[in-house]
Amino acid sequence: MNDRIEKRIELKAPVSRVWRALTDHRGFGQWFRVKLDGPFVPGQVSRGQVTYPGYEHLKWEAVVQKMEPERLFSFTWHPYAVDPKKDYSDETPTLVEFRLERIPSGTRLLVTESGFDKIPSDRRAEAFRMNDGGWTQQMKNIEKHVAQTP
Fold this sequence. Notes:
Distance between the termini: 40 Å
Number of strands: 7
Helix content: 25-40%
């Protein structure tokens, strides 16, 4: 099994618009389907409530790692942590990185989630499968969002 998920998309939007969609907590919440409690701050925990249909019972929690303007936004989290009765805090989180590159037609966005090899073996394959599909959908969501949001 692979240790990382990579998704790449070319967005017909300037880097500044894509950056806002990724790093403004309200914009991120719109396309990612989560209501965040406040702005993203490097080194701090981001919390909120998932609003994605069927997953509304889940809390969002991620630790913001880096915010390098219009280039890199990253956070760590516990992938596919969907059992509200389970404590995932002892698990090593995965690293999610959004890398932006200016291209003639707009912005190339590369999303990478790595570290699945550190997820406990009893849930590793399912976490990878679900997040792989999730990132495919999220690429469509951000594409639609930046096309509709000035």
